[in-house]
Amino acid sequence: MLNVEYVLGLVDGEGSFNVRVNENNRRARVELKFSLKLRYQDKEILHELQKFFGCGKVYIQRDKRPRHSLCYRFEVQNKKEIIEKIIPFFEKNLPKLPSRKRDFQLFKEIVDLSNNEQLDFEKIKSLKEQMHWGSLITGNPYDQWEREVTQNKSE
Known about the structure:
Elements: H1 4-14, E1 15-23, E2 28-39, H2 43-53, E3 57-61, E4 71-76, H3 79-92, H4 98-114, H5 121-130, H6 141-154
């Protein structure tokens, strides 16, 4: 049975919050994904993670690159599950790593924007570009982000 601290450690080390903006001609949409990848020897932990969150899927991820081992991935792509299970968990239990914490906050903001009837794709793309330490040019990016978050909360 996994506990909160163990899950946070897993996510800090191997987890990822991802967003894909798909703007094809027929229907533009925002695709959300929370995932964690481990070597095949550790796949049982991914099944435990699936039980812990009560959602998501575990599947094999084959990699044909030389010197890469067989891996399994736990993934949540269902928007309802992300909103009802993943977001509330990480709101109560923020990741410990500054980079992962920042990615979660940006991910959450994008999830909120994706619920609007009229999607602001430019705002969503701008936030997405900031994930995974992107679009931050100088200085300590975490310090800059922390100042922005603090400033926004005080307004």
